[in-house]
Predict the 3D structure of the following.
Amino acid sequence: MTKRGRSRRVVTDEVLFAGRVMSQAAVTFHSVVAAKQGLSAVEEKSLDVLQRFGPLTAGELSEKSGLAPPSVTGLVDRLEKKGFVKRVPDPSDGRRVRVQLIEERLAAFAPLFMEFVGELEKLCATFSVEELEAIRRFMLEAAERQRQCAAKLGREA
């Protein structure tokens, strides 16, 4: 039992439920943001992966996004056609190609996130540094486990 008499199972179930609520809100938010740019949510989140990691090969984009390799080729084709990415030679191996963001196009997303980021900063201000460190650790580990499960499901399809 926890300090307040609630069991680990009850609190774990509440955390899992909260994760479902957050996931639904994230999908909805990113679908709206993506639609405002003429993209799907998967395309918009793939741009986020490229922004975080820099130019990637199609295989690296597949690995980091959890998308199946065959779907990444079509994804990159669509993003290139819409003017969000370009294919560039890999500086270390001219036979390979990397997918690179077109930064000017990405700048159009910033205003769409400003209010939400501001709200998250206000929320963070209500937690201690120690609590924020625990939340950060949980979120990153949960995201990694979800990415791994998605990749596994993609391989089984």
The longest helix spans residues 8-36. Strands lie at 85-90, 93-101. DSSP finds seven helices and two strands in the chain. Residues 8-126 form a domain with the Arc Repressor Mutant, subunit A fold (CATH 1.10.10.10).
